[in-house]
Amino acid sequence: MTRPENFEFQEWWNQQRDKNNNTTATHDHHLLDTSSSSSSNNDILTVQVTTPTSDPTVEKGRSRSARQLYWLCLLRFQQLFSFFASLVNGVVSLLRISHRRISSSSSSSSSSSSSSSSRLYRLIKAFLVLVLILLCLELVAYFKGWHFRPPVGSDEVLGMLGFVYSSWISIRANYLAPPLQALTNVCIVLFLIQSVDRVVLMIGCFWIKFRKLKPVATVRYAAADEEKGNVGAVEEYYPMVLVQIPMCNEREVYQQSIAAVCIQDWPKERMLVQVLDDSDESDVQQLIKAEVQKWQQRGVRILYRHRLIRTGYKAGNLKSAMSCDYVKDYEFVAIFDADFQPGPDFLKKTIPYFKGNDELALVQTRWSFVNKDENLLTRLQNINLSFHFEVEQQVNGMFINFFGFNGTAGVWRIKALEDCGGWLERTTVEDMDIAVRAHLCGWKFIYLDDVRCLCELPESYEAYKKQQHRWHSGPMQLLRLCFFDILRSKVSFAKKANLIFLFFLLRKLILPFYSFTLFCIILPLTMFLPEAQLPAWVVCYVPGIMSILNILPAPRSIPFIVPYLLFENTMSVTKFNAMISGLFRFGSSYEWIVTKKLGRSSENDLVAFEKESDPLVETTGLLRSSSDSGLEELSKLEISKKISKTRRNRLYRKELTLAFILLTASVRSLLSAQGIHFYFLLFQGITFLIVGLDLIGEQVS
C-alpha cells in the first residue's frame, strides 16, 4: 500500500517561491532607482533590510514532525514490548516442555541407559562441575582486576583468594597447558588429514562428473525384448534371481515393500521372493502372511518364512534363508529392507552388469528418500547420505572397486557370498562384514548412482541416534575381529592399507574421536587454560569449508549449512560413545534396535502399485476377487492394526550436560573478548540444548 501524497508542503513551497520572486523584483527596481540618484548627488546609499514574518505553515510542519516523532517512539516501544513478551513466552514454553520431558523421562532413563553411556555421562558431568568452579574463580578474578594484571605478592598481601588464583595461574601454565596443547596439536593434525581425505574424494567426484565416467553394462534387457519381440522367447536369457525382504515388526511399511518387489518387470518363473519375517508380534505376523497370500493368488512366486528363535538379528535371518535347498537353483540375490521400494525396472537395470564380468560380486544402488523434507532432522540426514552415496560410494566404486555394502538395495552374486563364508552373526554390521570378506577374496563391486531406490529416513532423534550408534559401534567390532585377517590376506599392500588406514581408522575411528575431543572437550578447556591455543581457523574456517564440500551433492540444502555444521558436532558425542563401546566390547555395542519407520508414502504407493500390477495379473489368467482391491486392503489394515505403544519425546542427559559446559565456556570466552570462539561456543551450546531437549525431529504432542 503506497503512502498518499502530501500537497501541503508543495503549496507552502510555491508560496515561498512566489514571495521570493516578488522580493527580488522589488529589490532590483530599488537598486536601479538608487543608482540613478547617486549619479546626480553623492548622498549615502542606505538599504533597508526587513525580516520576513514567520509562516504559519512552517509552524504547522514543525508541530506535525513532533507528533510523528511521538508516534514513532510509541511504535518502537510497542515493538520492543512485543519482542520481550514473545521472548518470555518462548522461555516459559521451553521450561514447560523441559519439565514435562524431565518428568516423563525420569522413569525410563535408568532402565534404558547402558553401561558405556553411563560411564561417559559421569565423566561429562564431572567435567561440568570442574568448568563451573573455574568459571566462578575467573569471574571473581575479573571483577577484582586480576584478569588483566595477575596478582603478585605474598600470601599476607594478596589474601587467601589472591594466593589461590596466583597459584592456579602457575599450575595451569606449567603443568596443565603443555599436555593440553600437545593433545590439541594431535587433534588438529588428525582434523587436517581427514579434511584432505574429503578434498581428495571431492576431486575424484568432480573428475567422474567431468569425464562422465560410469559403469557400462554389456547387455540391455529392454533392447533384447525389442529385438526378440516376445518376452516368453527370451526367458532363458534372464538369470534366476532370488529377492529377500528381511523385516521385524514392520507394521507400517511391509505392504509397500512387498508390493514394490512383486511388480518387478522380470519373468515370474525366473524370480522368487522370500519374505523373511522375524516379528515377535502375532498380529503383525498375520498381516504379513495375509499380504503374501494375496500376491500368491495373483501368480507371484513368493514365500513367507518365520523363525521361532531370533538369533543373530538380520544376519541370522539372511543366513537361515540362504540355507534352503532351492537357493542352489538361483544365481543372484537382491536384498531390500522393509521400507525400501525399488522401481519396477530395478532388476533390469542391475543384473546386466554381471554379464561377462565374472569377478563382480555386488551391484549397489543409491538410496532416495521420500521424507527428506519432513523436518530439519531429515534434511540434515539427507545432506550426510547424499555425500556418502554420490561422493564416497561412487569414487571408491569407480577407482578401487570396493566400498561398504549398505545392507539393502543391492544385488549379490550368490557364488561370491558362498566363497567368502556367507552371512556371519558376529557383529551388528553384517553388511560391512561380508563386503570386507568378499573384497579380501578378490571380488569386485560396482556402484550405480543413476539407479535410485526409495526409502524412508528416521524422523525422530531417538530413532536416528540408535541407528547411528549401531552404524558406528559395528565397524569397531569388525576392525577388532578382522584386523589380522586383513594382514594375512593375499590382496595387495595398497588394498590392505586402504582397508586399515582409510576405511576403518580414518573414517570410522579418527573422525568421531577428534570431532568430539576437539570441539566438545579441548575448545572449552582452552577458554579456562588460555596458555593452550586453539586457532580460529580450526574452529571456524576449515569446518566451514568442509561443510560446504559436504553439502555440494545436495545443493538445495545450502541454506542449512550452519545448522548442519552445528548438528554434526552435536552428533559427535553419540558417535564417540558408539566407537568406544564397539572398540572395547561394551554391552551396548551388540544392541540391535530396529529403526522406527512411519510409512509416510505407503497408502499412495499401494494405490499406484494396484494400477501397475493389473496388467501383470491379467497375463497370468488368474481372476482376482473383489476383496483384493488395494483400497479395501487398506481399510482392513486400519481395522486390524492394534494401538501401538505411545511415542513421546524425551531428554538426553549427555547432550544437555555438554550444552551447559559449552555455554559456561562461552561466558569465559566473553570475558576474554574472543569473538569467533565466543560465537561458536554460544551457538554450539544452544544446538546441544535443542538436541538434548529433543526439539529437533518429530515432535509428539
How would you summarize this macromolecular structure in one to three sentences?
With about 700 residues, the protein is an alpha/beta fold. Helix content is about 60%, strand content about 5%. An eight-stranded mixed beta sheet has the order 3-2-1-4-7-6-8-5, sandwiched between helices.
Name the descriptors.
7% strand; eight-stranded mixed β-sheet; alpha/beta; 20 helices
Which helices and strands occur, and which strands form pairs?
Layout: H1 7-40, H2 56-112, H3 115-143, H4 155-211, H5 221-228, E1 241-247, H6 254-262, E2 271-277, H7 282-297, E3 302-306, H8 313-322, E4 332-335, E5 341-342, H9 346-350, E6 360-369, H10 376-399, E7 410-413, H11 414-419, H12 430-440, E8 444-455, H13 461-488, H14 493-528, H15 536-551, H16 561-583, H17 602-620, H18 630-640, H19 653-671, H20 675-692
Parallel strand pairs: 1-2, 1-4, 2-3, 6-8
Antiparallel strand pairs: 4-7, 5-8, 6-7
| Contiguous runs where pLDDT drops below 50 for at least 5 residues | 34-52, 57-62, 107-113, 606-644
Give the biggest sheet: 8 strands, mixed
Percentage of residues in DSSP E strands: 5-15%
What general outline do the C-alpha atoms trace? globular
User: Could you report the average pLDDT, rounded to the nearest whole number?
Assistant: 82
> Helices and strands, in N-to-C order?
HHHHHEHEHEHEEHEHEHHEHHHHHHHH
Q: Share of helix among residues? A: 55-70%
Quaternary class: single chain
Would you report the number of β strands? 8
Please tell me how large the radius of gyration is: 36 Å
> Which structural category do the helix and sheet elements fall into?
alpha/beta
Distance between the termini: 40 Å
| Main sheet: strand order | 3-2-1-4-7-6-8-5
Please report the number of helical segments.
20
